[in-house]
Amino acid sequence: MSRARHKLTATKVKNWEAGTIYDGGGLQLQKQSKSHGRWIFRYSFFGRRRDMGLGTYPVVSLAGARISRDHWEEVKLADRDPIEVRNQERAKLLEDRSAYDPTLEEAVTACLEHRKSTLKKGGLAGRWRSPLDMHAVPLLGKRRVSTLTTNDIKRVIEPLWVDHHPTAEKLYQRLRLILKHCVAHEINVDPEIVDKALGQLPAVAHQTESIKATPWQDVPALYQKLSKPTSSHMALRLLILTVVRADSVCGARFEEIDGNVWIVPPLRVKGKEGKTEEFRVPLALEAMRIVDNCSKRSRNSYLFPGHRNKPICGNALLEALNDLDEPGRPHGFRSSFKDWSRENHPGLYEISETSLAHKIGNKTERSYQRSDLLEPRRALMKAWADYVTGSS
After folding, report:
1. Is position 17 within any domain?
2. Would residue 381 count as lying in a domain?
3. pTM across the whole model
């Protein structure tokens, strides 16, 4: 097919079957068929021939191709290579996009960094990232948040929605927070896609299972079985006697013991960072014996050392109970104590709740409650220790 050397018209471009036709000034159209072609700007830069693509036909019209050709001709006349200039502009665009359109994994990190001052141990204590790293990041971590859709969120949550509903709920809450964080930083995302995904999932009548607790009548027998001079057995004994949470016990240090009072620092008291206060725990005589025994065997500042001079972890307590075929969990001893208190000391509701470090009353009422009821709690905890050890 012969090459046309005169300026083109829109009709001629449309009717040209296949081959290359020229418009002058370096602009040409390479047609693969009557309905499809590719615009090329051919120019010479310092003696080197260059072919620059200007888009496809008919997406780019003849008029559009001429405007683009004229623009890049001006760039060339300024002694700048059009292709190099365009490559630089594209690289800058990608760089700007990355700065304002992070991947989901980057957004997770940024959101956690923003919120970590309100989370215990910067979010590590509650493993804030864990459900995201387990389920969302492997699927969508490399995707730009602006490209995420309702269906993407649904793909992450749906496999967990029925059989692992609590985890799915955590994923929903975290993803919602992350996209709201992106909106606050003027990133082009649709925060509604998380709620839309939730709306497409079936209704689930999820029943929350309570943590298994040892019946209070069985606690004394179990206490006697925890007789080994190991960190896990001794920690479980102190946990039963004081009914504090497992994290508080596992990280206990000798410098926290002040006479017969154990002062748990805010970092290991349940609650948001900056919203918790130290919690004083009265120690019964049996609890003091455990502290004394720990001081004789521990080689560092921890009452219950584990490996590599670190404190034991909650799993060590679980394993100790499992070895004894005890179905109750460490946290369940708080329930054991509460049931014992209700049945044997029904008039001491406020004291038993305070012993569990629970908040009582509304915000206004609590503002007037300045006492932690240490001495009344001491009497109740002594009665509990006497019951557990068989002294009563």
Report:
1. yes
2. yes
3. 0.60
CATH number (domain holding residue 185): 1.10.150.130
* 166 close to 204: Cβ distance less than 8 angstroms: no
Same domain flag for 229 and 165: no
Number of domains in the chain: 3
The Cα–Cα gap between 148 and 379 comes to: 58
Q: Which of 164, 199, 234 is the last residue of a domain?
A: 199
Backbone phi, psi, residue 246, to 5° = -60, -40
CA distance 210 to 328: 11
Structure tokens at 136: 């969302």
CATH of residue 255's domain is 1.10.443.10
**Structure tokens belonging to residue 106:** 């980057």
- Tens place of pLDDT for every residue, the chain, 392 residues? 334 445 888 899 888 888 999 998 899 999 998 889 999 999 999 889 999 999 999 999 999 999 999 999 999 999 999 999 999 988 887 776 666 688 999 999 999 888 877 776 666 656 888 899 999 999 999 999 989 999 999 999 999 998 888 899 999 999 999 999 998 888 888 889 999 999 999 887 766 677 899 999 999 999 999 999 999 999 999 999 999 999 999 999 999 999 999 999 988 888 765 567 899 999 999 999 999 999 888 778 999 998 888 899 999 999 999 999 999 999 999 999 999 999 999 989 999 999 998 888 777 766 667 788 999 999 999 999 999 998 86
Judgement on whether residues 221 and 363 belong to the same structural domain of the protein = yes
Name the residue range of residue 70's domain: 10-95
Question: 121 and 266 in contact (C-beta within 8 Å)?
Answer: no
Let me know whether 161 and 77 are in one domain: no
